[in-house]
Queue: 2 jobs
Job 1
Amino acid sequence: MTGVNFASAGSGFEDQTSRLSNTLPMSKQVNLFKEYLLRIRNIVGEKEASRIIENSLIFISSGTNDFTRYYRSLKRKKMDIGEYQDSVLRIAQASVKELFSLGGRQFCLAGLPPFGCTPIQITLSGDPDRACVDEQNRDAQAYNSKLEKLLPALQGSLHGSKIVYLDAYQAFKEILDNPAKYGMVVQ
């Protein structure tokens, strides 16, 4: 067995994000993981199933759709971006804790990319120059900073876990800033 994927493109940490896009929210993805655990235990037994899960890398890359939806939702009137970031982080943290309780020990959480540079966000901004939406990119960086600071404390609270942060923002920004370096032609 080399891997299992429970991801759902277009989903988010928040259930509401996924309801709007008819995708599986993080909570449902975790439930699918639980179902998988039952099946694998029936196939290989409890001890081997635990070994497999403990040695697996659980990769979580979510949140972009939550934030892109936030900018167009009524939620923006109810809470500022900092409060919303904290709300999403609480869901992310709860997801990791639940996966840990199910036997997961190794986690990689990706930060947000510069989603203010996605075509949909640029289009919705109405900018005739078609430039990245700087405010949204700053918000992504602020969220990422909070996530990166949260992970060591989360790891410390989950004895035996290893949790690493993946800087998706810088990886994507590097490609956006230097497309030719990566063999992409800009016209």
Note: The mean pLDDT is 94.
Job 2
Amino acid sequence: VLFSSDLHGNDEHLERLLHHAEHVEAVDVVMLGGDLGPRGTGFGRDADGHQVLLSHLPKRSDGKIDWTTDEALAYMREGYMSQKEWFTRTLVPMLERCAVPSVCLFGNSDWAGLLPLA
């Protein structure tokens, strides 16, 4: 078994894993753990190196993201479509080309509505 998780849409890492499974070790199955797809915009670090998570979204008075706003809904739609594109154009074709069978486990940042695609 070759297991990896938290790909977050990293094509190069996925390619290396599948190459390793096919050509380096005798692997019976590739298991990909949660957080497979890309996260979307708004993740990263600011100029001072501090982690920035969704700082562009409106906040409530307590400082937490206001998920009821149009901006938050647009962000969620963008994330869903970004993952859908990655699953259909990258993940599924790469897994289909690999001679080693695979299993995908969705994580908390993977959209459940995309599960049938994987």
Note: The longest helix spans residues 70-97.
